[in-house]
Write a structure and sequence with these properties.
The chain has 228 residues and is mainly β. It has one domain. Strands 1, 2, 3, 4, 5, 6, 7, 8, 9, 10, 11, 12, 13 and 14 form a 14-stranded mixed sheet that branches.
Length: 228
Amino acid sequence: MAALVNLALIVVVVAALAGCTNGSAKDGGSVPRDLSGAVTGWQEGRADLVAEVFDGEDLRPIAHGTLDAAGNVGVWLPEALEADLLARLADVLPCRELAAVPPEARVARLFSLDVVHDGRPRGAIAQASSQEATFPLPSEVGAYRIFRWYADRDASVRGTCASTSGGYVYEHRWALDLERGWNIVVETINELTESGETRETRAAPLPEGTNWYFLDVMMAVELGPTAP
């Protein structure tokens, strides 16, 4: 069951994501390593938080923290990650049309923070523009969700993934520039019509208005694993 929960939580974002991160320790990369802020509507009492990165094959824990009764988040990400936690950049991209430079750069991706309540997996928290936007389903133009990527060197990803299903056109543009260390990565819905959608993934400062949202285990399981 634990393995199922961990795999299911890949869907939620979130990277984790920053929203309301006010720390100053940067140590490589362009963003602070302390994750803070408050979870919108949290009423479940104190819980433990686990940060896990996806190394291309599995979720691996890298840090632990707390979620207090008021919903305040407290997690510090490590300054550097061990080599066995990283995957080759070119191998983690979702389609062949994307170009990674350099392709041998190694990365790890943080989608969300697992919530453990009274010793039991309770779900996850993720950052996004809204509760609806934490899922990989279209919500509205301008909606976004937050991830964090760790890179062992400066690297970039350029290109577009495109597919069509039942007349619905899905396009995902990448303009991702990573710095060595931790990076905030934002996936935004730029266009949305009845016949298709366009998303963009890029590294960027945390957008104003970003919040943490809670997703229970069943919400994650129903959607299945998906993330940039």
